[in-house]
Each structure stands twice: as C-alpha cells, then as structure tokens.
Amino acid sequence: MAILIFYPIANAFYFSFTDQSALGGKSSFVGLQTYFTVLTNKDYLNSILNSVIWTLGNVVVQTLLGLGGALVLNEKLKGVRWARSLVLLPWMVPTVVAAIIFHFMLSAELGVVNYYLMQSGIVERPLVLLGSPQNAMPTAILINSWRFVPFVIVLILAGLKTIPLELYEAANIDGASSFQKFRYLTMPSLQPILAAVGLIGTIWQFNYFDFPYLLTQGGPGLSTTTMPVIMYRLVVQYLFTSRAYVLSVIMFAILTVFSFLYVRRVKPGQ
Amino acid sequence: MRPMRVKTLLRKFILYVSMIGMMIVILFPLYWMFISSIKPVKDLYTSYSLIPEHVTLFSFQQVLMSPIVLHVRNSTLVALGAAALAIFLGTLASLATMRFKFKGRNLFLNLLIVSYMFQGFLLVLPLVDVMTRLGLYDNLGGLAILHTILVMPFIIWMLRAFFGTIPVDLEEAAMIDGTSRLGAFWRVTLPLSAPGLATAAIFAFLTSWNEYMFALVMLVGDANRTIPLGLAASVGHYSIDWATLNAGSVIAVIPGFIFFLLIGKYFEAGLVSGAVKA
Known about the structure:
The complex is a heterodimer. By secondary structure, chain A is mainly alpha-helical.
C-alpha cells in the first residue's frame, strides 16, 4: 500500500528534475530547467488559471445548489421521499455517458435544448454552448455540477437530520423569523459539513480530468484546458513526460498549501 | 390569521416549484437519452416531442453488431475482478485493523483517508508507470488492480462500519468452542455481514464500470477497450452516430441503475459516513 502510493509520488518528484521523454532513451538530470520552461510558457500558465476557475466555479455552484436543494428536500412535501431517493441518480451515471447526453442535448443544430429555446422565442439564434470559447467553461461547470450536486445534497441532508427539532421549536416560541432560524440555527449546525464539502470538492475538482476532457477535449482553443488535461496531452501526444511531472509537482504543491491553510482557517470536523 | 395563511401557502408553492424544477433538471437528461435510444434514426433530428411518436429497437440491434459488445465484456471482466479483489483485501485489512492492536494502526487508517483525497490525475502518471514496470500496461488485469487501489480506502472504511455492527462476543464464543480466529470470523461474522459485503462489492463494481481516466491512459489497443473508452472514442469523429451512442449509453447506465434500486439506501449511508470521516 505504502509502496503503491508513496513510491510513485517520490518518483514524480525525481522525474520533474530530468528531461525524461516518453520516447524512451536515457534521461539526464537537468535541475530546475524544466520548471523554468513550464513557468515561462503562456499555455501552461493558462492551464493553471483555468484549473483555478474550474475548481472555484464548481465548488461555489455545487455548494450553493446543494444547500438550496437539501433545504427544499428537508421539508415535509408530497413526494419528497421519491425526490430524495431519485436525487442521487446522476451520481450513478458514468461521466462518459453524461458527456454524451449533454453533447446531444446542447448541440446548436440538432439539440433539444436549443429547439425549445427557439420555439418559445427566448433566443432568436441557437446558442452555441460547448463550441464557443466564452461559453464552454461555464457550460462545462454546470454540466459537471449536474453530476456532483446530488452528492452534495445527500451530504447536507444527512447534516440537516442531525439538528435536533427541539431547537427549532424553541426558536418558534421565541418568535424567530425563518431567516433568523436559517442564519443562527441551520447554518452554524451545518458548518462542519459545509467545510468538509468545500475541502473534498476543491481537491476532487482540481484533480478532475474526465469532464473538461470528455466534453470539449480542453477546447475550443485552450478555453477549457485545465492542468490534468494539458498533462494528459504532454504525456500522450507531445511526449514531454518531464513537463507533465513538473505540472504534477505544482498541482501537488498548490493542493497541499490550500489544504493546510483551509484546515487551519475553517477547521472542518469541529 | 389571513395574511399568515397566504404566506404559508406561498411558501409551500415555492417549495413545490423548486422541488419539481430540481427533479426535472435531474431526470430530463436521462429521460431524453432513453427515448432517443428507442426512436427511429430519422426522427432523431426532426422530432422533438417529449413522447416518442414511433418506437423501435433498431438502435439496440445496431449496438449488438458493433464493438460495444466486446467493450461490455471487457468492462464486466475488469469490474468483477476489481470487486472480488477489493472485497478479499478489504475484508482482511478491516479485520486486521479491528481485531488486533498494533503500532501504526491509526496512522494506517488516517493515511487511507489522505490517499482517498489525493485521487484524480495526480495519481495517474505514477501508477501507470508502476503498472508498466510490472508488465501490466495495456492489460485488463492491470486495470482491475488499479481500480482496486482506487476503491480500497473507501471499501475498508465501509467494511469496518459493517463489521462493527456485529458483536465481537459472537466470535469469541465460537473461539471458546474451539474454532480458530479466522474460522470464527469466517463462520460467524462474515455470514452476518453479507449485506454489507454485497454493498461494498457493488460499490467497487460500479466505480470500475464507470471509470474512464485510468482506462484511457492504461489501455491502448482497440481489443482491450472498456465501455467508457469505447463510447468516448465514437464521440470524437466528424459524423457522430448518435443512434448507436444513445443506445450504448443506455446499456452503460443499466448496472448502475439496477444496483441503485437494490441498494441505494445502504449506498447513501456509506457515502455519508465515508465523506464525514474524511
């Protein structure tokens, strides 16, 4: 176990200081040279920025929608038990299939979404979503959220169940408004779970390869090329293996610093 | 009292609208995929009615003649292998960490959580490198081992939770009656935790069945493709055969949905306990 996890990480550090390429052959030690190449290249810096946007966008959208969804599903409504069990379905869908469905539905010429938007007169021309550099990233974030929000909802619902009902009854007797109950009772009780969602979400999304790659192959242009996508390209297409290792060391460093600061400030699990 | 009632009615109304809206957003894409797979090909780009006008199994017949059949077989083999391996190792590991006290036990359990957090692309290059050195590159067995590694932390935490619900006294009673420790575990605890084992096995199976990234980097030949790879490969081409893709997608989600119906509840509980501990 330790060998399987930690040997590779040490290995990645070592290779980031060499000029290893996937073509094989002897690699030699080149010190920080590869780091210098990577950090002065516009495309690599752009992928770091894209990764940050992708991660932040996903975590913010998913936490807000997850919180809203969980609050709705926590109410006593007709059919809410059905809704609560069906909500997890997208989580069971393979990422590839989710990418295919949304490609099909959002297609500018043939997609059902554009068809109904045009029919109802909301838009005059079909929306180009995944095919345009401006829209691709937000669209990809929303599609990814379709698959992840259910998971967040289930977690927050579990958190809401742990808040004792007596607290709400006491608040009612004191004449608290709905907003006050939410602000001073629900939110503080959910704090540990929301903190965990933020931490897990950030780490997962930062490392997430499937959606940015499957939906748009990182395009159009480089508009959705996040760090995992460019690393994949470097290894499989351009054969600059050592640059991919440099990027993986940078990713590792960013995540470690983030987790450290986050755990110190937000203190999840308290 | 009147304004109060209007307010509660309005609140109920907003809640119902949000719940129904949420369900539509969640379910419509899946519904659309399903009805697109049973539409005739000529209706695919012309008929947008929410209920299909004509129904045919043509797309599924196409799928049966395509390489997707081979991909389903590959995926099944890998997923079964990963599930079996994960359950076997997971049972031993959770038994060891529950019944014995040893130095570094808590460190081991905490490391499991840490490794679970550092999943994703960060692990792909090094792990595939290890597999290449073991001669398991482009090998379905190698992929099954990778998928096992991927699910192990979660499986161990899940199994510990399930075994924890069965009193140790039962095992101890069996040991007093003369069975060995493993024998007691095998005859007493294991049968009692069958539902837990099934849940963990299904979790491992599904993770492997749905997994794309490791398969993409590990497998190069057409013959070894798993179903996510096979489906993704047909998206990139210039003319996309949406009919076959939709039908293939329906086939790809079937195991997930069946298992969801069977064990959705346990699965949810497992997810929550796993994530809260992490």
